[in-house]
Amino acid sequence: MKKLFSLALALSLVLSIAGLVLAQAPSGELEIFSWWAGDEGPALEALIAKYNELYPDVEVINATVTGGSGVNARAVLKTRMLGGDPPDSFQVHAGQELIGTWVVADRMEDLTFLFEEEGWMEQFPEGLLKLISTDEGIWSVPVNIHRSNVLWYVPAKLQEWGVEVPATWADFLAICPTLKEKGVTPLALGENWTVNHLWESVALAELGVDGWNGLWDGSKAWTDPDVVAMWDTFGQILDCTNPDAASLSWQQATDLVVNGQAAFNVMGDWAAGYMVTTLGLVPGEGFGWSAAPGTDGVFMMLSDSFGLPVGAPNRDATIAWLKLLGSAEGQDIFNPLKGSIPANLNGDVTNPDLYNAYLRSAAEDWKSNTIVGSLVHGAVAPESFSSNFATVMEIFLAGRNGEQASNAAQAVALQAGIGK
User: Fold this and answer.
1) The domain containing residue 116 runs over which residues?
2) Pairing outcome for strands 141-142 and 146-147
3) For the chain, what is the domain count?
4) In percent, how much of the chain has pLDDT > 90?
């Protein structure tokens, strides 16, 4: 009996040791590629600090390329991916930005196994899972949910100027002369991509949910009369913006509102992260917010996510990184600093010690609003369309001709396989 017990004990020890070897923590280097630099850096750095705590044998290389909305980072990433030099993992907007570019090129690993192992099939909303999936697999791990269509302002300044938050773009255009007479820029704007960002909120308001979605499923033509008319409204709104917009970052455009030089700014809710984390403002006091004019009850969403490139230099360390990103714990570390809400439904989003008043309100809207995807931030169209939309915007800005812009957009859509 003692012999049998000793053999069993020995076998148990052997199996335990083997298990430890199989479960050995990753080591080596892990390169994380993103555009979260400067004011957006603290949220990423907090995640990296947690990763370092969990996996001290891994050296994390925080490879960032500055530039709002990842405009510059995507160009650098394309060179690396095409050259066979992928980072271990890279930031990408969830949806067609990844699927229509690197998934269709067979450059990404299917992550279905990870979602099943971690229980994420039940922890992420069904609509979000659909956004990041194809019939062949699941392609990225969303770390957050951002809202694109937010109007920012300072309540005390609006009271001082005697204006109210506009419910529609017609309301906004009606108060523009009043603000200009007071020496106030009605709407702060920044560099080129922020013009496109403003445009998508105007388009959503003017076309409605069905019209907006129709542009991306091909059921609505860009040459339809209401789309052409939308461009005219957009041009009138641009006339109410600051003339130095092209030289300003999105943060500097936000500063114009905070400093009382401008009344409003349409920007994603990373602006809340900037105003809280960098500027130290209190939501509801230092700044206020509402849905962009004409979009109340609609949540235009985007999500930052990370995937696993084929040929990632340190696959084990990357999978460990993705596990942290998708976990409720990791998302509760990241999102309060980033100015976003967790994609994982188990996130502690009702906790006022973690999530401020703006983020809690965004979480409520996420549950109750109609959800649509962002163009500028990669959710609804492949990169072959979104990258060429910059040319469409240039055509409009050069001549302020809505018919020309619509014709150009229709051509780009057809080239991208959208519509007939």
Assistant:
1) 27-146+302-370
2) unpaired
3) 2
4) 83
